[in-house]
Design brief:
Its EC number is 2.8.3.-. Keywords: Transferase. It comes from Neorhizobium phenanthreniclasticum. GO terms for molecular function: transferase activity. It holds the Pfam family CoA_transf_3. The protein is of the alpha/beta class and about 800 residues long. It has four domains: about 200 residues, Crotonobetainyl-coa:carnitine coa-transferase, domain 1 (Rossmann fold); about 90 residues, formyl-coa transferase, domain 3, CATH 3.30.1540; about 220 residues, Rossmann fold, CATH 3.40.50.10540; about 90 residues, formyl-coa transferase, domain 3. Helices cover about 35% and strands about 15% of the residues. The strands form six sheets. Strands 3-2-1-4-5-6-24 form a seven-stranded mixed β-sheet, with helices on both faces. Helix 1 crosses helix 6 and helix 2 crosses helix 22. The longest helix has 24 residues. The protein is globular.
Length: about 800
């Protein structure tokens, strides 16, 4: 079968997780990727964890470099390096390499530069390990228990997200190059990408000044421990009867402590104590299945070591092998151009002398005026909440016309859900007469889009949607598998209307398999990946990353998959069906950890923020209520610098702390010493002092800190937009910067049905009488139905 990126020449000259993950995604789907390494090999080859059976094999390197070849090039050998770069379609560079050098050599090349904080700006010299990136993003402030140190998460997810963002930028630039034959620079910062994954609380703060804290009980969820693992249960008010029935606790439904939502929330801990007693001896997967059949969202927190034997994953033939070693399965399932991994990670320099690329001949195309790179592309979104709308938002940011389609009886849940609206969702805490147009949640995700309301339960509504499909390029759906088919809009039916359409669905667990029908949210998907089990305080329950970390990751994955399918269509005219199983795609972010657990059968114990390869590596209290600063000594030099900055240089040679092994043995005592130093100091001042001294550190930012970030302002992250119902506010942006054809935020999210007439008149070219008839029928609406 063909591959989506066949014939694309990629030079992976990067030396970071982000760069090599970006190149791995391109290699997975057919690009010819050459990893350029120094004589001593890529630094990722020396990164923990290592295989037990092959002690010199870094599992990060194995995970990130399958399907690539390797050549060794001394950077002093400019001729050899320039020859490769001059012949490349795409070049992914190390942070210290000038992109303009490649542009001069090869004007048609897409040049990617990915780094922690960028090549310029207020934080250009800062050190940015994962804990620093998550602290600055606003994400870490939401993780863990109030009164304890906030948790950074697990692994290196900010770097993986930046690699995914870079991949998106490259694919957008490649689509634009199809018409112009011109290259450009794609710039991505991991710090800005991390902030883009967390902006709902920032948007809420901008709307009404509120600051979310871990003290707030804002999600209707809790965890219970079964005999074989933890289970998270979401108890929405409208599912209360179903919860009581599924748990065989019918007497709770009218119990005065729980019968009413507000009282139930006040007695939340008591409720979960009763549920815990009921399920202690039950099987976690059986409990989840029973709840899901009752349409109650629930998930087991899988341990990494369980995933190799996971019945659902194995039913989907998820795990694969390359060169006899285990690799993770495909992040995206594409009907025409599936993933094709031909080999495992390469030996150092194995392709030396075998690469003989010659520069391609490119004649620049003609463009009468600057265009957005995806201009002319039309997208239909049948989506809700975050992941699906995020995918459409990425495409719209770069110029696609994205039409957000909602049914009046099934409104986007981020506009209006079945729970009672809370003041924190609205500007100045006021719902107003059109609360569905004033919610910061919907308005954060639907910038640049059009709104068309079609009642798909009516034949007229479905007929109108089919007319829209006939003039569209992409359709995105993130409802449960089978939703499109029930409406008569399965891929085969849509392709019969528009043969080259790309249809992308985002089922949490994929379109088939024992768990395929399970409903999910970001936190429950995080539990299903194996991430949550590695996050938490010692001896305590698994934790999640708030708010809903895997939702925007799912949106980014879907955008990347759609753009790969678009690259194939640009060259062949062929559309296809794309499935983005969000859990499986997100598992790539902890690939090394999953491979180690599969190999050993062991799971790393949750240990707060502590890691094996750094000490200190934690959040420490700062001046003020629930204020924290993270400090991470990445090496001995930073440890010595930290001791000097604290005014305690003698600690550097203290036998308790003189090397990493000693610091790990005495970590509790070390933590106490640092806490005493930070507790009376401002978190921002501590971070600046330590970064100036060469030590990785950052304030744990809340929503107000992120909104006031001089770094994000310098990056142009916020754009002021006017909304007719919500007013004028700054809107957080996206972290993907194209040098020649940048994306932008051009208009605020649409009013409910605000473009009904535009769609009928200007896109579908209906007659005046047809427009009048449809507008007055049950097929279209300008406000949600009362029972929607």
């Amino acid at each position: 079968m063909p591959t989506a990126l066949h014939g694309l020449r990629v030079v992976d000259f990067s030396d970071s997780l982000a760069g090599q993950y970006c190149a791995r995604l391109l290699a997975d789907f057919g690009a010819d990727v050459t990893l350029i390494e120094p004589v001593e090999g890529s630094p990722i080859r020396r990164m923990q964890p290592f295989s037990v059976t092959e002690p010199n094999l870094s599992l990060h390197f194995w995970h990130l470099n399958a399907g690539k070849c390797s050549i060794v090039v001394d950077r002093a050998n400019a001729v050899r390096l320039d020859t490769m770069l001059a012949a490349a379609d795409v070049a992914i560079l190390p942070e210290d390499f000038d992109p303009q050098r490649v542009e001069r050599l090869n004007p048609g090349c897409i040049v990617a530069s990915v780094s922690a904080f960028g090549r310029d700006g207020p934080l250009e010299d800062w050190r940015g390990p994962e804990i620093v990136l998550q602290a600055l993003s606003g994400m870490m402030n939401n993780n863990g228990a109030y009164g304890r140190e906030p948790l950074y998460g697990v692994g290196n997810r900010a770097s993986y997200a930046a690699g995914l963002a870079t991949c998106i930028g490259i694919l957008v630039a490649l689509h634009e190059r199809h018409s112009s034959n011109l290259g450009q620079v794609v710039s991505v910062d991991a710090a800005e990408t991390a902030a883009a994954m967390c902006f709902p609380y920032v948007m809420r703060h901008i709307y009404n000044g509120s600051i979310h804290t871990r003290r707030d009980q804002t999600i209707p969820a809790g965890q219970v421990k079964c005999r074989d693992g933890w289970v998270c249960i979401w108890i929405y008010n409208h599912r209360w009867h179903a919860v009581c029935t599924a748990l065989d606790l019918p007497h709770l439904e009218n119990d005065p402590r729980f019968a009413e939502p507000a009282v139930r929330r006040a007695n939340w801990e008591t409720l979960y104590e009763i549920i815990q007693e009921k399920v202690t001896d039950q099987c976690a997967e059986e409990l989840v299945e029973r709840l899901q059949k009752a349409q109650v969202i629930a998930a087991k927190a899988y341990q990494p070591s369980e995933q190799l034997q996971n019945g659902h994953l194995n039913d989907r033939n998820y795990w694969e092998k390359a060169d006899g070693r285990l690799i993770l399965g495909t992040p995206y399932r594409m009907s025409v151009t599936p993933r094709k991994v031909t080999s495992g990670a390469p030996a150092l320099g194995e392709a030396n002398g075998e690469i003989a690329w010659t520069p391609p001949e490119r004649v620049p195309g003609r463009q009468s005026s600057p265009r957005l790179p995806l201009e002319g592309l039309r997208v239909i979104e049948i989506t809700t909440a975050w992941a699906g709308p995020m995918a459409g938002r990425v495409l719209a940011y770069f110029g696609a016309q994205s039409i957000h389609v909602e049914s009046p009886n099934r409104v986007n849940s981020w506009r209006l859900n079945k729970e009672k609206p809370t003041p924190i969702n609205f500007p100045d805490g006021e719902a107003g007469s059109r609360p569905f147009d004033r919610s910061f949640l919907f308005n954060s995700q639907n910038v640049n889009k059009l709104s068309c309301i079609l009642n798909l339960k009516t034949e007229e509504g479905r007929k109108t949607l089919r007319r829209l499909v006939a003039v569209a390029d992409v359709l995105i759906c993130n409802f449960r598998p089978g939703t499109l088919a029930k409406l008569g809009l399965d891929y085969e039916s849509l392709a019969a209307i528009k043969s080259d359409i790309i249809v992308a669905e985002l089922p949490a667990f994929g379109g088939r398999g024992p768990m395929s029908r399970y409903a999910a949210l970001g936190p429950t998907m995080e539990m299903a990946t194996g991430m949550s089990a590695m996050m938490g305080y010692p001896g305590c329950q698994p934790e999640n990353s708030g708010p809903s970390y895997l939702d925007p990751i799912g949106g980014f994955n879907a955008a990347a998959a759609i753009l790969m399918a678009l690259y194939h269509r640009d060259r062949t005219g062929e559309g296809q069906y794309v499935e983005v199983p969000q859990v499986e795609a997100a598992m790539q972010f902890i690939g090394a950890e999953l491979l180690l657990a599969a190999e050993t059968g062991d799971d790393p114990p949750a240990d707060g923020n502590r890691v094996l390869h750094m000490a200190p590596h934690d959040a420490f209290p700062a001046r003020g209520e629930d204020q924290w600063v993270v400090i991470a000594a990445e090496d001995h030099k930073q440890w010595v610098a930290l001791c000097a900055a604290m005014g305690r240089p003698e600690l550097a040679s203290d036998p308790r702390f003189s090397d990493l092994a000693a610091r790990k043995r005495n970590e509790a005592e070390l933590t106490s010493i640092i806490c005493e130093w930070t507790a009376t100091r401002d978190k921002h001042a501590v971070a600046r002092l330590l970064q100036y001294a060469g030590v990785a550190a950052a304030p744990v930012a809340n929503a107000a800190d992120v909104a006031a970030s001089t770094y994000l302002a310098y990056r142009g992250f916020f754009t002021e937009l006017d909304h007719p119902d919500a007013g004028r506010h700054r809107h957080p942006g996206l972290p993907i910067h194209l040098s020649r054809t940048p994306g932008s935020q051009r208009r605020a999210a649409p009013q409910f049905g605000g473009h009904n007439q535009h769609v009928l008149r200007h896109i579908l070219a209906f007659s005046a009488s047809d427009i009048d008839r449809i507008s007055k029928s049950d097929a279209m609406a300008a406000v949600p139905f009362p029972d929607g």
